[in-house]
Structures are given as C-alpha cells and as structure tokens.
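quick one, 254 residues, struct below
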Amino acid sequence: MHPYVLEENNWKDVSGRVYRLALLPWGSTEAHNFHLPYGTDTFLAKYVAEEAAKYAWERNVQSVVLPALAYGVNLGQMEVPLCMNMHPSTQKVVLDNIVEVLVSAGITRLIVVNGHGGNQFQPIIRELSVKYPHMLMATINWWSAVNGAAYFDDPGDHAGALETSAMQAVRPDWVLPLELAGDGAERLLKAQGFRERWAWTPRRWILVTQDTGVGNPFGAKAEQGEKFLRDCMDKIGDFVIEFARADKEEDLYE
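---
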C-alpha cells in the first residue's frame, strides 16, 4: 500500500492525513500501432504521477494521486475501432466535478499529469481558475519534462521509439515483439504552414497512418526508456514540491 495513491488507501488512512496537493493522471484509450496496448497513455501518466508523488512524499511533501482517467480527446480517430473519445467540453465538466471535491477536502493545489497529446487542459484550467480562485491548477505533458531528442534519435509522435522504450522499461509484458509493429510512417499535410507548425488543423488519423502509429518504434530500447522516465520523474517531482510549497499564488512569481 502506498500512502500517496488514493485508491489503495482506506477512509481511516485518508482522514488522518493533510494532503498538500493532488495529482490527476489523465490519459486516453486508443490504438498504439500493433505492438503497444490501447492503455499506454493512461498507464504511463499514472506511473509518472505515482513516482513523482513518491519522490515528493520522501521529501516531506504529502501529495495524493487520484484515480487515472482513461478517456481522452480522440475526435480524429473515430474510424479506428474503440478509440474512446471524450469531448473537451466533457473534460471540463469532469475536471470541474473533481476540483469541487478537492476544494471541499481542503486541497488547494492540483496538477493534471497529461499522457495524451490530444488533451489540451490549458483553456479548461483558465476557466476553472475563475470559478475556484483559491485552487492553484497546473497541467504538464509528462514526456516534455526533458528533451526526448537527447535520448532517442527519432522519438516519434505516437507509439514511436520514446513511448515504446518507456513501456519496455516498466511494462515489458504489455509490449509485443517489435517485428510485429508497423513502421509508423506518417503522411504529412501539404500546406507549408502546417509543416512549419504555425498553422494547425486536427489530423484525420485514418489518412495519416496505416498502422495507427506516428514514429518508428524499431529503435526502442528499455534502457533508454528507463533513463528517460527517471529523468522526467525527478524533474516532475521537483516541480510537485515547488508547486505544493507555494502558500499563495504570488509565491509562484520571482
């Protein structure tokens, strides 16, 4: 039993603690090429959140990891069987409900640990920050805590070397042999603005990739994944401590 994982604890445990901060892992349920499971994003977000909370707990910052949410924004993947979609407007309602409970429990810090690129929590947090002025909220994309290009020649965007290596490191039993994977080749949008990333449009996944992957997984190695994850979690753990120790919003500024 881990004292920082809510779903593992009982009422007596929880009622006897004062949690400074909550972490909410939020992933998705979607296809990840042929070699990774649909639950990859959710599992990795949960794993990182729990390790970061452990890191903070060992440094006397009591944080709690909420049960992970496995429904992300997958509107571009509706043709892919059982890629579960949750609309951004629904995510706002869900997060609002969760924050309401946290506030009633006296928790005034929340970090959404995002595991899925299609989830965009910034506008939701902007809106909820007005409704809950005493709740400080932040969101992180866990894989962006450190530069993936420093660990992988081609990190990939979805089910590529980065994600595959991370899963090989922590759940190798969920990763099929790489010879079964597709190469993750991506069809790019033609317009230069999209290619230079100053213009954006949702990607229609069925037109982008033949194997649901975007990024070549064949260079994946568990050793690289373990080091990448560890460096991400240490950095996120430090952030958790800094964010939790801010007594008021002004303390976030120099």
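The chain has eight helices and four strands.
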